[in-house]
Automatic annotation (TrEMBL):
One of its GO terms (biological process) is tRNA N1-guanine methylation. This is tRNA (Guanine37-N1)-methyltransferase. PANTHER family: TRNA (GUANINE(37)-N1)-METHYLTRANSFERASE (PTHR23245:SF36), TRNA METHYLTRANSFERASE (PTHR23245). GO terms for molecular function: tRNA methyltransferase activity. The keyword Nucleotide-binding does not apply.
Length: 327
């Protein structure tokens, strides 16, 4: 099976390997291989590799000495990765501790292991964590070539939505004016700016906005990102009729902000509206709410209805891509 590898001469191999390791890009589950005078260094994210390096597909063998947590536990544990943090969701504290210890003793790359201690709660959508290994809940997450610094104890971030975010970002064209109404640390806003859009990101969480500014600088798009702390409803004077693209990723209560979205929308605007609804009618409530807010001033065209993921029994997290065209 081929995987992305950086191909370098053997004389440059150690320097390049060290540079990739410093950026947490090494695929430690695969062996570094020498062939025909070149060194093939497996990486976990080809798009995040600096442009000066040659990335190729190569059949790098799996490390024979790799020890997985399941081998130590006797069962396959469930966990998520967010940068160098491993996230568990275990109700049994003793089981969580066993898994954390196995992760430490395995070859899995992690500096911190946490267990969810609460649901997402409050106006800022954060949760509590039991830190089982390590001290810091701050990390750098890499996604489709972008880096996002964040503290999981202070901001909301879901790595599970990476594919959905990428789907939306791929639709963005250079020169657009985009506004993320609930921007967090910038997983929509920063890549949209990377596509050449002028982006405004707004969030109530002051810590998230600080990270948003840092992440814009980290990814070289600070000149195209305006980060604003506060309620997005306060932007209706300055940004009325301004926006070509709106992201509304607040699925439990986005409908409460539709009047604001319509005020912010320009002559033509694509709205990415996220919702959580019952499986019997996952898209109908969102579409009806959008039409009620936008018509008759705008023609409303639903371009995409997408189930993002299962949220709870019989409930889906969904997205509607909706085009608003002024009449």
């Amino acid at each position: 099976m081929t995987v992305p590898c950086v191909r370098v001469s053997t004389s440059e191999g150690e320097a390049v390997r060290s540079a990739l390791a410093s950026r947490d890009l090494l695929d430690r589950e695969r062996e570094i291989t020498v062939e025909d005078g070149s060194l093939y260094i497996p990486v976990i994210d080809a798009e995040a590799v600096p442009e000066q390096h040659d990335v190729v597909a190569y059949d790098a063998p799996v490390r024979e000495t790799q020890t997985a947590p399941a081998e130590l536990l006797g069962f396959e544990p469930s966990y998520e990765r967010l940068g160098d943090i491993v996230i568990l969701d275990e109700d049994d504290e003793e089981r969580a501790r066993r898994i954390a210890d196995a992760i430490v003793d395995s070859d899995l790359r992690a500096s911190t292991v946490v267990n969810r201690a609460s649901k997402v709660k409050g106006e800022l959508r954060v949760r509590e964590w039991d830190v089982l290994v390590g001290e810091s809940t701050e990390t750098v997450h890499r996604e489709y070539g972008y880096e996002f610094a964040l503290d999981i104890a202070a901001v909301y971030f879901s790595p599970r939505l990476a594919t959905e975010r990428h789907r939306v970002i791929e639709q963005v064209a250079a020169g657009e004016r985009a506004l993320d109404m609930f921007a967090g640390v910038g997983p929509f806003a920063v890549p949209m700016a990377g596509r050449g859009a002028e982006v405004v990101g707004c969030d109530l969480n002051a810590t998230a906005v600080t990270y948003l500014r840092e992440n814009a600088r980290r990814n070289g798009v600070a000149d195209r990102v305006t980060a604003i702390e506060g309620d997005v409803r306060g932007l209706t004077d300055e940004y009325a009729d301004w926006t070509d693209r709106l992201v509304m990723n607040l699925p439990h209560s986005a409908d409460e902000f539709l009047d604001t979205a319509v005020t912010l929308a320009g002559e033509e605007c694509v709205l990415h509206y996220y919702d959580i609804q019952h499986e019997d009618d996952p898209f109908g409530p969102g579409e009806r709410a959008i039409r009620e807010a936008a018509e008759p001033d705008y023609e409303v065209t639903v371009e995409t209805e997408r189930i993002v993921r299962s949220y709870a029994p019989h409930e889906y997290n969904v997205c509607l891509d909706v085009r608003l065209t002024a009449r």
